[in-house]
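User: Assemble these into one structure.

Assistant: Restating your components, then the assembled model:
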Amino acid sequence: MLRGLLILLIFQCLGEIIKSTTQLFLPGPVIGMLLLLIALSLRGQSVPLQLSKSSQLLIRYLPLMFLPPAVGIFFLGEAFNDQWPAIIGALLIGTFLSLLFNILLMQYLSRKSP
Amino acid sequence: MMPWQNDFLLSPLFAITLTLGAYQLGSYLYQRSGHFPLLHPTLSGAIAVAALLASADLDYLHYVQANQLLVFFLGPATVSLAIPLYQQYHLIRRMIKPILVTLIAGASFASISALCIAYWLGGNTQTLLSLASKSVTTPIAIGITREIHGLEALATGAVVMTGVIGLCIAPFLFRWLKVDDPKIWGFCMGISAHGVGTARAFELNTTAGTFSSLALCLTGTFSAIAIPFAVTLIRNFY
């Protein structure tokens, strides 16, 4: 568990260091994720048990970790009072359209190349 | 309120207890209702916390500050998404073309369609910047929003709501368009409804879940590169 978490944190540190030294506009943890992916591919074996255990646990509790920031949508303040039609419209119609678009595209592509 | 009460209500101890309690309550309701999308633990838990904060007149920003210990783990959790991605490499290789085309077109479409609708309905710049990452998995969406100076709270709420809306409408769309391939089912869930959709896809079967988490990882990575790049480009033009 702890060894796996240590590896993840080291890669996140590397990501943050690369981000601040190269002025890259990717979030630090995303750079860390890409570095870890490259490292795993170079190593070329199955994922170390410690690492996959930590990863499973963290991914399982993702919904818990983003609960506190999600509460913020109820406290946006008065500046956002006129923004609700835009927000709700974009979420409802946007999600419907994007699901429709993805399904049709994927169906078309997989029919073309079975 | 007595001074010690105020200190206690603003302490990490109370804030984290509140978060865990609300999450447990949400999970219980979600399980008991047979996974009714609108009772998703993050949404129902957040509503419970918001109601309590509002009724006790507590500051939301203090609550989030006091929860830093929990929110901190979003970082390593994002890094750990590399592991399912690596494990699914063989699946990606076999279907590389439909996967990449749908990913790039689908992730761009999800972001651009949301922005067009929000702009059309009178959204301001701050709102648009916070909605750009709505279909991206939360930890990456928070990173993107920080990068482009959107509003983190709105972005996170938008991501959670997108996932929940996706869960509500996907079953009807899949039935209407006769989607029976779990690979397509999962992949589309992952692109449009990120982690919330992925959890649901794993309930259907492992193939759907695998393709959904694959789509989640790829959409997150692609958007983390594309959205800040597009925003920087547009800013340089104006």
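Helices of chain A lie at 2-22, 28-43, 49-60, 62-65, 67-71, 84-112.
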